[in-house]
Design brief:
alpha/beta, Rossmann fold, Dihydrodipicolinate Reductase, domain 2
Length: 463
């Protein structure tokens, strides 16, 4: 697919990273910037901004450590090139003097990209500071998910951003959308005609999406207390996967049509009620640092969705995600309806018809399950999976791809506000009145009650 006309706009002549000393920058951003330097995609100044009283040399040492921890065999020349571009501004985001220092550090740059790798509560503060200082003129702003905590706060965040930046200069980054495997959903669906005749309510029995994490909150208790699994993963990552799987074929190759059809999927979703959701909390979560002793925040969430449109009416969609589950993986399972006549007794011995399985992480693969007859006279067979694709070497990381795109003005892989607000509206009832979080053992697949959501549709597929 071609990107839209935004890709032809002026490229950013500097990158400003607010929150440069934080966890996100250390784990994801500096390795991505190193990869961009290695490929030649980054050749402009990078200004880190944060509250720690560091020098530029201290930030450079921090960045080097981050890159080598991510890849001990990282390209030394690319590291040196990045460190040569890197500078630091220390200051309070509420202080106009911080933005004065930033203006000096930017020098002659006139089209910077301001990346907000900071807690969402600080987005309005920094955006307003950029506006007052004049640093928003000709610039772009890149904001991290979650985009608000609910529909009202998402609208307020969008209002604050639009008061300072034009809409086409606001880039809402959800790193999941930059993953190669997620992009392949779109390509796989619309580059192959064999699935289109059966990609509907007449042939699909159910769809389930699982994003499992083997680890816990890992020192991010304060963040999780403010977000929880529903806001942190379901509302953005998994809902975006559903939109790509359920959307209608775009009429053109431009991504404007893709964004429009994704929003239409959310508009057609039935608001989720408490009976359609199970929340869980792993045992030991309340002992994590910065977690309330009586916390009801969910570390696991499973829900049932319905898309009330012509293509998907009557087909249940099941989403689940959680921490301290047995595996770290993300998979989609599309279960097809059985043939209309049961000719062979063994065909549905286990209650499952054919399925399509999309593995999105940690490695990408596409597999189609079909029954194959065993050798011999008897009409007895087995269901086997035929692998269609596996991960390719040399793939860009999500942040490398998305930061490069944002600096070029290409918004193809970024979330748009209409889709974000529509997704929040779907979850409004359970955000307002959520069922209690149920305890589950670490290393299990979550609360047993989640099995009841999907019992009539063959149960969960565990990656």
């Amino acid at each position: 697919m071609n990107a839209d006309s935004n890709s032809t706009r002026t490229s950013s002549d500097a990158l400003v990273v607010f929150g440069a000393t934080g966890d996100l920058a250390y784990k994801k951003i500096f390795p991505a910037l190193h990869a961009m330097c290695r490929s030649g995609a980054l050749q402009v100044p990078v200004i880190g901004v944060a509250t720690r009283p560091w020098s530029s040399d201290q930030l450079r040492a921090h960045a080097r450590e981050s890159i080598l921890e991510d890849d001990p065999k990282a390209d030394a020349d690319a590291i040196d090139r990045l460190l040569g571009l890197l500078h630091y501004v220390s200051g309070n985001y509420k202080d106009s003097a911080t933005f004065d220092q930033l203006e000096k550090a930017l020098g002659g740059a006139r089209h910077p990209a301001h990346y907000l790798a900071i807690p969402p509560a600080l987005f309005p503060t920094v955006i307003e500071g950029l506006g007052r200082s004049g640093l928003a003129t000709g610039a772009r702003v890149i904001v991290e998910k979650p985009f608000g905590r609910d529909l009202a706060s998402a609208r307020e965040l969008n209002r604050a951003a639009l008061e300072v930046f034009p809409d086409d200069a606001i880039f809402r980054i959800d790193h999941f959308l930059g993953k190669e495997a997620i992009m392949n959903i779109l390509y796989f669906r619309f580059a192959n005609s064999i699935f289109e005749p059966i990609w509907n309510r007449h042939h699909v029995a159910s769809v389930q999406v699982t994003l499992a994490e083997k680890f816990g909150v890992e020192g991010r208790g304060a963040f999780y207390e403010s977000a929880g699994c529903l806001r942190d993963v379901i509302q953005n990552h998994l809902m975006q996967i559903v939109a790509l799987l359920a959307m209608e074929a775009p009429a053109s190759r431009g991504f404007d049509a893709v964004h429009r059809h994704k929003a239409e999927v959310f508009d057609a979703m039935r608001p989720v009620q408490a009976a359609d959701m199970v929340r869980g909390q792993y045992q030991g979560y309340r002992e994590e640092e910065a977690v309330a002793k009586n916390s009801d925040v969910e570390t696991y969430c499973a829900l049932r969705l319905h898309i009330d449109n012509w293509r998907w009416s009557g087909v249940p969609w099941y989403l689940r995600s959680g921490k301290h589950l047995p595996e770290s993986a993300c998979e989609v399972l599309v279960r097809f309806k059985p043939p209309p006549q049961k000719l062979f007794d063994d065909a549905f011995a286990h209650g499952h018809a054919n399925h399509l399985r999309l593995r999105l992480q940690p490695h990408s693969a596409i597999a189609l399950a079909a029954r194959v007859k065993r050798a011999g006279k008897g009409f007895v067979g087995d269901q086997r999976e035929f692998a269609l694709q596996e991960e390719q070497p040399g793939e860009q990381t999500a942040y490398e791809r998305l930061l490069s795109d944002a600096m070029r003005g290409d918004d193809a892989l970024f979330a748009h506000e209409n889709a974000i607000e529509a997704a929040w509206a779907v979850l409004a009832p359970v955000l307002a009145q959520a069922p209690a979080a149920l305890p589950y053992a670490q290393g299990s697949w979550g609360p047993a009650e989640a099995d009841g959501l999907i019992a009539e549709d063959g149960g969960w597929h565990n990656p």
